[in-house]
Design brief:
This protein has ten helices and twelve strands. The chain is of the alpha/beta class and 347 residues long. Strands 2-8-7-6-5-3-4 form a seven-stranded mixed sheet, with helices on both faces.
Length: 347
């Protein structure tokens, strides 16, 4: 009998929530172009603007919103069209940021994965993520933001992993991604405190993002946010149980003493390459990953773990849970982990 597959890779992409699917289908029925001046177009525009206001309300955001195809595009708009040049980015940023700012100064981290706030005091655009997608480490943006502004700079926060789970940081520009919190793939937004911070290029979205707006995606994203995050308390309990078992089995919790989002954990199994672990877990119907889904298909070492100075970085896998994850799921993973660790010890 084949066991039901166990999905523990929500940081890569969360399952589409039923509420989001229903809202997307509603949006498909509003088929007119929101930029058209006729009646159907105006109805589509009204639905889009309602979604924009609902998004702001759900996130507690009082600034502006540019709908995008995801966090990567939102980050690209911010990095390439900010009125200030990119001054510095943290060394543990997502590849989407690292590729777009190859010449910017790097803000270093220690084994705890944290950026020193004083180091971020730069004039220009400073990019520091709220939550790391590989380790779950939460950056001290409440301390970093005043340092950046005190130096005359602007703060860009990648909130792809944290939006819908944590309160938004006090940043000037914020990138979010719908499919990380149960919305549809291909939908996101750039939150902008003031339009004066960006150079417009013309087209839709107030001239900051050309292309016909994705109304079904916007409606689905907002519906996913509206479901709330009360399940995070349960997630914290499940991860605590998981990590206690991993340590007992001889594993290592990466940045275990740092503030971390309760849905993400990175774990090292000494002497067992992550690639081997992934194959063995997958053979048992368990889906986890080795670092970011955007780079896990390559054989290069994780730039995040390397920057943190983690020994055995190639032996680390990421486990990320969601609202449907149960204790039985965690026990199943713990059993598979412990069996693999015992096999390693006996070899």
């Amino acid at each position: 009998m084949t066991r039901e597959r166990l999905y523990l890779d929500h940081a890569a992409s969360a399952p589409l929530l039923p509420q989001a699917r229903d809202a997307w289908l509603q949006g498909v029925g509003i088929w007119s172009n929101p930029s058209s001046p006729h009646g159907p177009g105006r109805a589509a525009r009204a639905a889009l603007e309602d979604a924009r206001e609902r998004l702001k309300s759900a996130l507690g955001w009082s600034g502006e919103v540019v709908f995008t195809s995801g966090a990567s595009e939102a980050l690209a708009i911010a990095l390439q069209r900010c009125v200030m040049d990119v001054a510095a980015i943290s060394v543990v940023e997502h590849d989407a940021v690292l590729r777009l700012a190859p010449d910017a100064d790097r803000l270093l981290v220690g084994r705890d994965g944290l950026v020193e706030p004083l180091a971020a005091a730069r004039r220009g655009l400073v990019a520091v993520q709220q939550v790391n997608n590989e380790t779950g480490v939460i950056q001290p943006l409440d301390a970093i933001a005043p340092m950046v502004r005190g130096a005359g700079g602007l703060l860009l926060a990648d909130c792809a992993q944290s939006a819908g789970k944590l309160s938004l940081p006090d940043a000037d520009l914020i990138a979010i991604s719908a499919h990380k919190f149960g919305g549809p793939i291909g939908m996101g937004a750039l939150l902008v405190k003031d339009w004066a911070m960006l150079r417009p290029t013309g087209g839709q979205e107030r001239g900051y993002r050309p292309g016909t707006e994705n109304l079904p995606g916007a409606l689905a994203m907002v519906a996913a946010l509206d479901t709330g995050a009360e399940w995070l308390a349960s997630a914290a309990e499940l991860r605590a149980e998981l990590e206690q078992a991993i340590v007992q089995a001889g594993g290592e919790v990466i940045a275990g003493a740092s503030p971390r989002l309760p849905t993400i954990g990175a774990y090292r199994m000494p002497s067992v390459p992550a690639a081997v672990q992934l194959i063995r877990f997958d053979s048992q119907g368990i889906a986890v990953s080795a670092g970011s889904a955007c780079s896990s298909g390559s054989l290069k070492a994780s730039h995040v773990l390397t920057a943190m100075g983690i020994e055995g970085a190639s032996e680390v896998v990421r486990v990320s849970i969601g609202p449907e994850t149960t204790r039985e799921n965690i026990v199943r993973f713990i059993t598979a982990w412990a069996d693999m660790a015992r096999g390693r010890a006996a070899a």
